[in-house]
Amino acid sequence: MGRRETEALAESAAGAGTARRSPPTERVVQVLDHLVARPGVRFGLSELARELDLSKPTCLGILTALTDAGYLIRDPVDKTYGLGPALIVAGRAAQRGFASGPVARRHLAALVEEFGVMCSASAVVGDRIAVLDVVGGHGTAAAARVGEVYPFAPPVGLMYVLWDTDERIEQWLRREPTLPVSVDRDDLWRIVTDCRRAGYLAESLTPGGRRLYALMAGVVSHDLAPEMREMLAELVTSPGERVLTPDAFAAGEKRAVNLVAAPAYDPDGHQSLVLTLHLEREVDAAGIERCGAALVAVADAITVDLGGRRPGR
């Protein structure tokens, strides 16, 4: 190769390297990397600009664009920024190449086939409940969609701590309520005892309760006007009214069941996922027991395949 060709090749390589670099894009990545590395922390504009050595106008432009796209969320009260629900969808797509995605989907697909239902996997991500995966039942009427987020605070989210330690339940109870409702602690601990003994939770939501959950998807409680929060609170039923156990049925009685849920655990024996079978039909006590036993078996299999363990094992 002659000198002229060598110089042309060098210039071409240098040009390609320059073309691959985009300072504005790098600043966006810098902001996301900073927040991803600190998932439980929220930052104000000035703090982020200072820590990332960005001008406040530049940082604000990036934060606004990412918030508008759902990659970040902005707390309207303290004006801080944290990771948003759009990252869940992106992360779920990436997760399919790793172990947990295929493992959970394979086991849930068996339930979909057996019961003809939709199943989902969800977890607490930061301070929100996020739907991470859905198998079967796709369509406009789906009971859950990947990327949906819900507030993780009373009265929403009991099943995400129900099979964990008592302290984690108390931590959940101490969170600022999503809606202005009181929780009957005696009733709640009775439910905890029953569901821990059964290994699963079955829930029957009223039409109003189902509308409430649909309205709460993606909502930050602080975004709601006080009168709206009070109106939604009227739709809330106590856990004792919506959580069903087999002994709640009279002989031969059928009741509408929206979902059955059971936990998968991490290596430390804490809840890591909630697996949900969206039944959406009337069943009797035997039907709930059959669904619950099948779901618990699937949750246990996912726990083992992902290297987790049930508490006490």
From TrEMBL:
| Keywords annotated in UniProt | Transcription, Transcription regulation
Q: Which GO terms describe its molecular function?
A: DNA binding; DNA-binding transcription factor activity
| Residue spans of biased composition, Low complexity class | 9-22
Which Gene Ontology BP annotations are present?
negative regulation of DNA-templated transcription
**One Pfam family name from the record?**
HTH_IclR
Its domain of life reads: Bacteria
Q: Can you give the residue ranges of the HTH iclR-type domain?
A: 22-85
Question: Which InterPro entries does the entry link to?
Answer: GAF-like_dom_sf, HTH_MetabolicPath_Reg, Tscrpt_reg_IclR_N, WH-like_DNA-bd_sf, WH_DNA-bd_sf
Q: Does the keyword DNA repair apply?
A: no
Q: Does the keyword Magnesium apply?
A: no
Q: Where is this region: Disordered?
A: 1-24
Q: Which PANTHER family does the entry link to? A: HELIX-TURN-HELIX TRANSCRIPTIONAL REGULATOR, ICLR FAMILY, HTH-TYPE TRANSCRIPTIONAL REGULATOR RV1719
- List the protein's name: Transcriptional regulator
Which species does this protein come from? Rhodococcus gordoniae
